Amino acid sequence: MLVAVMPALDEEGSIGAVVRGLRAGGVPLIIVADNGSRDATVAVATAAGATVVSATRRGYGSACLAALAAVPAHATAVVFCDADGADDLARLEAITGPVLRDEADLVVGSRALGHAEPGALTPPQRAGNLVAICLMRLLYWRRVTDLGPFRCISTAALHRLRMGDPAFGWTAEMQTKALRLGLRYREVA
């Protein structure tokens, strides 16, 4: 069973379409972790068919952890995506397929391999991304091109990672731990 995890903060304008897109892509359970939205994010996500959990501690990683606490034990893989509609859900099978077919443990959607829209990464995000991927390349001798949030991981691998970063270091933590443990890592455009 594939489960989608989506951190959200004030995303009422986009989250409904993202939830419907995931459903259309065959994801049976979508867990939205609301990180304190002051708009109608929760109502829109619920109306679109998502299960909403509250992430009372602010932070991307905190929201991911809150959603993961609601993932059923029988789930085989988790796909992470953003609630703002920035992820190309037409690429959902490319992200999830290798994990569901047991060809990879972690698949990351790389904006560097694909075509990122202008403004998809701010200059500070580009700089941080560059530093992180260079360090991963040096430490683990693996080709890493992005810390993109659109990713899929097997639940078995996820349990081995023991994720804990409550902030935006979440994606780097996941990739670094996966590489350190020698998990089957893949990037797709």
Q: From the helix content, strand content and strand pairing, which structural class follows?
A: alpha/beta
Strand content: 15-25%
**What are the segments in which pLDDT stays under 50 over at least 5 consecutive residues?**
none
The percent of residues in helical segments reads 25-40%
Write down the overall mean pLDDT.
Answer: 89
| Adjacency order of strands in the biggest sheet | 3-2-1-4-6-5-7
Q: What is the oligomeric state here?
A: single chain
Rounded radius of gyration (Å) = 15 Å
Counting DSSP E segments of at least 2 residues, the number of strands comes to 7
Q: Write the H/E string, N to C.
A: EHEHEHEHEHEHHE
User: What sort of overall outline do the alpha carbons produce when their principal axes are compared?
Assistant: globular
Count of discrete alpha- or pi-helical segments spanning 4 or more residues: 7
Q: Can you summarize the main beta sheet?
A: 7 strands, mixed
Distance between the termini: 24 Å
